[in-house]
Specification:
Elements lengths: L7 E7 L2 E2 L2 E2 L3 E7 L10 E7 L4 E6 L3 H4 L5 E8 L2 E8 L4 E3 L7 E10 L2 E2 L6 E4 L6 E4 L6 E4 L9
Antiparallel strand pairs: 1-4, 2-3, 5-6, 5-13, 6-9, 7-8, 7-10, 10-11, 10-12, 13-14
């Protein structure tokens, strides 16, 4: 497998043969130009919610839709007419903070190469927690584990 990097020229040396006679090699020079991703990220998962934030984990578009090296992900979050965007590098989590407790936000994410941005995922919703809760979402089982403060009373 050959990895091509954007806007990099590659030189191939081809040696033609005819009836077991080797001719001199031929230089072939080509420049790789990538385009924007043709598909959205393959998955976006909510990995944590608090009363004032939520965090998303993003997976690359499928290989046939990457069209180059994915460099960043950008998420857009909406609440009514308000709009927030956040961009992170490949492998980082997207966290939106300073949000309102127990409020439903809509989000979509798109991936980018050096050529630009691809299509966004369909809009999804996430609801921040009520005050005092931290929820960690399990990717494997899609369950929510709520961690709340608890008082321990010792008996005599």
């Amino acid at each position: 497998m050959v990895v091509h990097y954007p806007k990099v020229s590659h030189k191939l040396f081809v040696t033609p043969t005819h009836n077991n006679t080797i001719s001199s090699y031929i230089d072939i020079l080509y420049l790789v130009m990538f385009t924007v991703p043709s598909g959205p990220p393959s998955s976006v998962e909510v990995v944590e919610t608090t009363p004032f934030s939520f965090t998303l984990s993003v997976s690359q578009p499928s290989p046939q839709h990457r069209n180059g090296i994915i460099t960043t992900y950008t998420a857009t979050v909406r609440l009514g007419g308000a709009l927030w965007t956040r961009t992170v590098r490949l492998g980082q989590l997207l966290t939106f903070s300073s949000l309102l407790p127990y409020t439903t936000y809509r989000y979509a994410v798109h991936a980018s190469t050096s050529a630009g941005s691809g299509p966004a995922t369909p809009n999804e919703e996430v609801t921040t927690n009520e005050t005092g809760e931290l929820c960690q979402h399990s990717r494997k089982y899609n369950i929510i584990v709520a961690i709340t403060e608890a008082a321990v009373i010792k008996g005599h």
